[in-house]
Fold this sequence. Notes:
This protein is α+β, with helices and mostly antiparallel strands. It has a single domain, classed as Translation Initiation Factor Eif1 (2-Layer Sandwich), CATH 3.30.780. The protein is 22% helix and 18% strand. It contains two helices and five strands, in the order E-E-H-E-E-H-E. It has helices spanning 64-78, 96-105, and strands at 41-45, 54-58, 82-85, 88-92, 112-113. The longest helix has 15 residues, at 64-78. The chain is elongated, with a radius of gyration of 20 Å. The termini are far apart.
Amino acid sequence: MSKKNKPDARGFVFSTDPSFRFEEEDQAAAETLPVNQQKLRIRLDTKQRAGKAVTLVTGFIGKEEDLEILGKQLKNFCGTGGSVKDGEAIVQGDQRDKVLQWLLKNGYSGTKKV
Length: 114
């Protein structure tokens, strides 16, 4: 592959537009709201999971790293597995009461069980 056809760091190889200029996207991560201002929703979900129930915590506003930390703390408290995907913390099993208890104990006052 010749040097001029190698992709750059952003994945662009070539443009036919002579006036093309790549403009960087502003991906300023949303600042994480304080704990007492978070309005989290807890719900049970079984869709597309082969009938297995999971507890979803949605509505988190902030950085992905902070959501990862929250998800890890919830999984440790419940003693189960789970993950964080698409802005949702997923805890395996029906752990709605435990998750609500932990969130209220740690200052997430705007939390609702749906």
